[in-house]
## 1
Amino acid sequence: METGRIAGQANGAVWIQYGETIVLVTACRSKRAGDRDFLPLTVEYREKSYAGGRIPGNFFRREGRMGEKETLAARLTDHMIRPMFPKKYRYEVQVFITILSYDGENDADVLGMVGASASLVLSDMPFDGPIAAVRVGRVDGDLVINPTNSQLEESDMDLIISGDRDSIGSVEGHAEEISEAALLEALEFAHENIQGILELQDELQKKAGKEKQEYIAPVIDPELAKAVEEFAGKRVSEANHTDDRSDRAQKLDDVEADVQEALAEKFPESSKDIGEVMYDLIKNDMRRMVLTEKRRIDGRKVDEVRPLSAEVEVLPRAHGSALFQRGETQALCVATLGNKMDEKMVDDLRGKAFKSYYLDYNFPSYSTNEVSFPRGPSRRDIGHGHLAESAISPVIPTVASFPYTIRLVSDIQSSNGSSSMATVCGCSMALMDAGVPIKAPVTASGVGLISEGDEYEILTDIQGAEDFLGDMDLKVAGTEAGITAVQMENKIQGIRLEILEEALQRARQGRLQILKVMTEAIPASRSELSQHAPRIQFIKIDPSKIGAVIGPGGRMIREIETTGAKVAVDDDGTITVSAVEAEAAAAAMAMIQGITADAEIGRDYDGKVKRIMPFGAFVEILPGKEGLLHISEIDHTRVNEVEDVLSEGEAVRVKVLDIDNSGKIRLSRKALLPEKSDS
C-alpha cells in the first residue's frame, strides 16, 4: 500500500496491490456542506478492461455503466465505511475504486474496501477509521484468509468481513450449509487478521496523513427542541403504541403537522429543524419502548415473528410459483425452466461465463405506495437479488443431474422490511412447485439490534421502521441443516462478537418457525415437472458435423426448430433439444439424427426427389444428404426422359450402391425393383 505517487490532487489516494492485482482508490469531498439530512456518500467501483488484458465487448469499445459485479463491490464498500462518518456530516463524499490490474486469482473487491478506508484515513475528512476487510474461505476444514479464486472453488464458504479494532463492521457472503458455530469461528478468525491491516493504515497516516477537517455538526436551537418535545412528546409515545402501521403513520403525520403549525410563528423558517427533532423523538421513543418495556411498535415481543402465510400454484401457466407473506411484506416468486440457450452470460475481468441458475429481484414503487419512474434494476435490486440467489444456490441440483437453466424472479408486491428474506422463502417454494429436485427448502430471517451503551435488545424479524431506526440489520438464510447466506449492515460502527452469537441463534429460531409454514404449503419438491415446463433430451454427435446441424447462416437449425423444439449446440458436439410437447422433441431429434447420420453402402432409404437433370435425379436420402440416381439406375427398362418416371418432390425408395472418397453417393432404384421377364 502506498500513497503520493498518483492522483495527488485527491483528498486521499492509495495504490494497493496484492499479487498482481492493483487497485487505485481515491476519496474526495465537496468544498461546501450541503443541506441534505443524510450523508451524501457515493462509492464507485470500476473495472478497467485493460486490467485483465481485454478490450470491452460492447459496440462502443469502452467501459460503460457499472455491471453487476461492480455494483455489488461498491455496495460492500459503502456498507463498511458509511457508519464511520459523523452522523450529520453534510459534505458530499465520493470514493472512487479503479481496478488497474487483475491477475486472475486475487479478486479486487476486498482490496477496494481496504483502499477506501486508507484513502479516507489519509484525507482531511472526519472519518473515524481505520477499518479493514478480509475474505475468509474454508478448504478441507481449514480457514483461509483472502483465498485465491482457485481455493474458493474448493471452499465451502466465501465471506467478506470488515471490522475495526474492537468489533465487526459488516458481513456478506454465502456458504454450504455451515453451522452458526462455524460462522462465528470465521468471524473471529477474520477479526484477528484484520488487525495487521489496521496497523498498516495507521503507519501510512502517520507518514502522509492530512490534518483532519474541523467539523462542527449543525446544532438545533435548544429552545426549539424543548418546545417540540413539550408539544409532541406524549402524542409521539401514544402513536408509537399503535400496533397498526397505517394508523401509527397517520397519527405521527398528524402530530408533526400540528407541531409545525403551532410553532411556525415563534420559530419561522425552522420547518426542517422541527422535522429533525420529530424524527429524533420518534426514534428515541421507539428505542426506549424496546429497551424498557420489551415491546415493539407493532406490539410484538422482541423474539416474535410477524404473521406468516404461504401458498403455491398461484400462476396457472408458470412452471412454478409461490406467494409468500410476512406481515406487510409480500413476495410473488416464479420459477421458469429453460434450456442451455437461456443461460445468463456474465462478462467481466474474469472473462465470459454462463450461469444456468440465476435470480432477478424487482422492487416496484407501488410496493411502498410511492411513485417513481422505472429505470431498470437499482443497486438495491441487484444487491438483494444477489443475496437471495446466493442463499438458494447450495441446494440447486447440478446441471449433470438436472439439465435445465433455472431462472427465478421475485416481484415484491408489498414491503415493510425483509423483502430479500421473503424472496428467499418464496423462490425456494417456487422451485419446489416447479418440480426442481432441490436439496432442501431454504428459509431466511432478518434480525435487528437496539443498543444504548452496554444495554441492548435483539429483535427477531425486523420490519421497516426497526431497520431504519435500529442499529443493525442482520440477514441470515439457510436450510434446517445450516447457513447458506449472511449479510450484516450496521448503523453504528461495530458489533461485538458475543452479541452476534446471540443474534445468530435468534435468527435460527426465526428460520425454523418460518420453515414450518413453508413446508405446510408444500412439503417437498413435486415428483413431476410442471406440465408447462420443457422436456429436455440430449444427443452427442461428432463435432465435425456441428456445421451440418447449424447449416449455412443457421438455415438448418431454423428448419429443425420449425418442429416447435428449441435446439442448443455445444462445441463438444452435445446437442440439447427442449420442447413442451413430446412430439416436437421427437421430431427434432429425428431430424438431427438424420442430418448427422452417415449413408451406408447397401442400405435402402426412403428418399425424396430434389432436382431432375437430363442424366438423372438428385435424391435426398437423409436431411441435407443427396445422392445421384443416374438415369440408367431408374428402371430395368430403358428410360428416355427422367420426367417420364420421376417428378420433383416425389418419394422414391433407393439403394446406396457406392460412396466415393469425396463423399459422393451413387443410388439405384432399379436394384429394389423386381426384374421384368422377357415374356
## 2
Amino acid sequence: MATPCGFRLAGRLDVEQTRRQKRPIIPAIGRSVGAKTTEDSDKMSQITLTFPDGNTRDVPIGTTPAQVAESISKSLSKKAISAQVDGAHWDLAWPIEADAKISINTMQDDDAALELIRHDLAHIMARAVQTIWPDVKVTIGPVRDFGWFYDFDRAEPFTPEDLGAIEAEMKRIIAARETVRTEVWDRERARKHYADSGESFKVELLDRIPGDEPIRMYWHGEWQDLCRGPHLQHTGQIPADAFKLTRVSSAYWLGDNTRPQLQRIYGIAFRNRDDLKMHLKFLEEAEARDHRRLGREMDLYHMQEEAPGQVFWHPNGWTIYTTLQDYMRRRQRRGGYVEVNTPQVVDRKLWEASGHWDKYQDHMFIVEVDEEHAREKAINALKPMNCPCHVQVFNQGLKSYRDLPLRMAEFGSCARYEPSGALHGIMRVRGFTQDDGHIFCTEDQIQAECAAFINFLSETYRDLGFETFDIAFATRPEKRVGSDESWDHVEGALEAAIKSTGNPYRVEEGDGAFYGPKLDFYLTDAIGRVWQCGTFQVDPNLPERLGASYIGEDGNKHRPYMLHRAVLGSFERFIGILIENSAGKLPFWLAPRQVVVASIVSEADDYVAEVVEALTKAGVRAEADIRNEKINYKVREHSLGKVPAILAIGRQEVEDRTVTLRRLGEKATQVISLDEVTAALSAEATPPDLRQK
C-alpha cells in the first residue's frame, strides 16, 4: 500500500530499554546556526542552505531544520512543524548532510500540516488501541484521502462503541503533549527487536523496506513506531477537536486473500473543527448519493458472491446502460468512427507480442484449455483491454495513407483482476465494458485528431450534465521509448490541439506513458468530487510491436500512430458517477422509469391505460399503477424509486381528459391536458443528440 511514510510498525518498548537503546543521531552544533567556524575547521564541514527568498547561509553539516528555524527567530521555532528540503518533506529533527534548498513549514502550510496531522493521528490511534487492548498487534496504516486507516490483528471485530473509547484515549494522548523522538537503527537490531517481541507482521514489513532506506524509529511516550516519517514535534500539536474515527471494515494482510484477515479502522482529520464539520456534512451528502444504496432503491442491479466484481443488471439498470450505449453509438458514427467487435478470449501469444503478458499478467484472468490433439494446454487470457485486438483488425488487408485517419470504436467487454478489497459497487469491478476507440493516423494528423476528440468529448459531457471538465497534459517520463525529437513533435501537437479548442489545462511533467504523452480528462460532480474519465494517448509502440503499417505517398511502408481514446472510460463506472452526481435523479431521457400513471380511483383504470399507451407511442417509458392503494402511498413509493414524473388520475381528470403532473422533488402539481403532457414529455424523452437545435 502506498503511503507518504512508507511502512510503519507499532509496538511497546519499556522505558528502561528505551534508555539503554537510545543513541543520538543529530550531531551537536554551535549556539548559533550561522556562527563562524573555528580556525581549524575546514570548508568541508560546512553546507550551504538556500532559502525561498534566494538568501543563503553556511551551516555545519548535520544541522537540523529545527535549528535553522531557531536561528531565524524564536517565534518561527515555536510555529515550525516540518521543512521542505530540496522539495522533500523533512522532519525538523533530521540532519541535513548536503547543500540544499530549504523552507520551514507551519500550520499555515495546508499540505504539510494535513499530512503530519493525519500521519501522527494514525500513530496515536494505534497507540490508543494497544493501550486499551495490549494483545492487539498493529500492522500498517497509510495516510490517504482525508485521513488514514490502520490495520489491526484482532480476532474480535471492533464495534462503534469501541471507536468511541479509542477516540477518548487518543484525546488523552494528545493532551499529554509528549515529545516525539526519532532514532536511526541498523536493520539487524530492528529485526531482532521485533522478532524477540513476537511481532511477525513487523518483521515482514521490515524486510520489505528497501535496503538503502534508513530504519527510523519514532517514539511518543513509551510507545514506539518504525516509520519513514516525518512527524510533528509533540502530540499537543494535533488539534484534538478536528478528527473523528468513521468506520470499521476487514482487510486481508497486504491485500492477499491467502493471508490473515485484519480489522481496519478509518479516521478523518483536519486543521480545525469547522473543516471537520464541513467534511462530515459532505460525507452525509455522499452517503445519500451512494450508487450502491440508490441502485437498490431504483432496482438497477445486484452483485453476488458467485461472480465477484461483476454486475447483474436488472431491467431498470440495463435500460440506462443501453440508452447510454445507443447515444454513444450514434455520436461515434457521426464522428466518423467504424464500429468493430473483437474476441474476449485471446491466446497468450498476442499478449506476449503486445507486451501485456510481462507487464499486466497479474491483472489478467488466465484460461487453460486442453485443445484436441494438442500436446500441451493452450493458454488464453480474457482481454483486459481492446488495443491489441484493434491492431489485428487494422492489419487485415493493405492500408494506404488515403485510409487514414481510421477511427475504430468498440464497446469492448473486458476483464481485469482487482483485489476483493478494492471492489466498490459498479465503480470498481472485474468485468466491464469500455467505450473504447483507437485512431490510426500519420504523425501530421495527430493534432487535428486530438482537437476533434476534445470537441467530441466536450459535447458528450455537456449532454450528460457536465458543463465543464479539466484537462491534465502528461508529458514524457524518465523511462520512455522513442527519440527526443519524436516526443517534441508529439507533445507539441497535443498542446497545440488543446490550445486550439480554447480549453484550459495543467501540465503533469513526467506522467506520460512510456510510449507517448497523454491527456486525462477530469469531471467534478455536484458535491465537488473529481473523477478521471476520458483519456487520449499517443502510441507509436504498439503498432511497431504488432507489425501495423500503411503504404505512404512515396509507395513505401510506414508505421501509423495509434491514438487510444475513451470518453466514458467504462459504462459501469460512468453510470455510477451519473447516479451519484444526480442523486438518482437522472436526466429524463436517461431515467429507466420515466413516467408512472397512477390511478386515484378504480373508475380511472381505463383512462390510465389510454394515457400509458399515448405516452408509449410518443417514445416515453410509461407504466401504469392501478393498485388499490392511496395516491400518497404511490407517490412516496415511486419517488423513492426516482421516477421523474407521476401522473395522477381521478374522476375529474377522466372527465376533463387531463392529468395531474407531479415532478420528482417538487410539492407543487400541475393540471395539464393529455395532448400537452404527451408532447412535453416526449420532447424530454428525446436524447439530446436527436433534438432539433
